[in-house]
Amino acid sequence: MEGEEQSPKIIYDIIILGASGFTGKYVVREALKFFDASSSSPLKTLALAGRNPSKLAQALEWAAHPNPPPAIPILTADTTDPPSLRRLCSQARLILNCVGPFRLYGEPVVAACVESGCDYLDICGEPEFMERMEVAYHEKASEKGSLVVSACGFDSVPAELGLMFNSRQWVSPAAPNRVEAYVSLESEKRVVGNMGTYESAVLGVANAGKLQEFRRSRPRRARPVIPGPPPPKGPTIEHQKQIGVWAVKLPSADSIVVRRTLSILTENPRGLPGVNESSEQIAKKEAFWSTVKPAHFGVKISSKSLLGIFRIITVGIFIGVFGKTAFGRWLLLKFPSVFSLGWFRKKGPSEDEVRSASFKMWFVGHGFSDCRLLSEGNMKPDSEIITRVMGPEIGYLTTPIILLQCTLIVLSQRDNLPKGGVFPPGIVFGHTDLQQRLQENGISFDVVLRN
Length: 451
Description:
The chain has 451 residues and is α/β, with parallel strands linked by helices. The chain is 42% helix and 20% strand.
């Protein structure tokens, strides 16, 4: 009614968008572990958002089970309705976006967050989306004080922190030349992937040409100075005896995200300035980044058997060939279980399959015991350091763990993070206590071998 006073708008610490989706409901479950208005947790207020309020209520009930669901507000928002997204962002300190594929649904959410000046994290593993968002929104996000960070899940935090962890084992005058990550997915039952990951891969093939064109149109980024010659190409299928796996190159977002972080670090060797850092925090951040040494980086998917590698290659060929035409993509998305040889299915994995799955990510680093000797001739790497990151199932357990720990850092340490801009996770969270937090929540970092 006219003249009636409007109630003050509630600002939530976080709003989880897409909370009723396959991954979204697991993110809600992880968030509830830290949601406590009466404790020292920085997560005091929380809301869920999406198109369908009844599905959101069901997701909350599922996530809270066996406890009764807490009284958490359910908000309606749709990625095809920009005004609804702007209303949502005006009520949040931080939006967690779980609505994928991001190339189809992500940009309106980023645009609304940047416009509102609220922060944004997502679980995207799509290089094209991340690169386009950086070009389109970085400057405005910097002005508005909106921190936009993609890939805050299994893509690509284990790769980012894993590379840094390996890199920091090379104590000067030693230095790495290349680090290769070998991803191994394991299960006591069967490995069943996230359908969103499969859909993103299919769409990625369809748009590969556009991505190359887009990259050619951009100015080249700063390249880090890496000691020694570029690494040899190596065989298509590799037997990595040290860790007992067969491996083939994986066209994942991880290597692209890591290269973006190393490039930004080359331009900002002391790290990115925080909003309002203390001199102690600045010294701590600079000390951390001074120990991170750049290296050539690549990712391979691995299996204990050669048969497993041929299965991976077969699925890759199906997606590569069929993903190029509209009819082929329809087939791939209509019959995911057939074309992925059972790895992906529309209804996703069962609770038992999620619980029984895990991952290992080995980082095999080759470098020089004394890089000062490089000037004496064409010296080959003479040292090896192998490190490992391990954790639970990647899509529904590890990804929510990572997203929530990044969230808690944004809520509790905002002054130590950049004012705003579009960044990969490594350069934003590398110097924080994220690795320690992950270790306390079931994701381990170990040194396996030094040669």
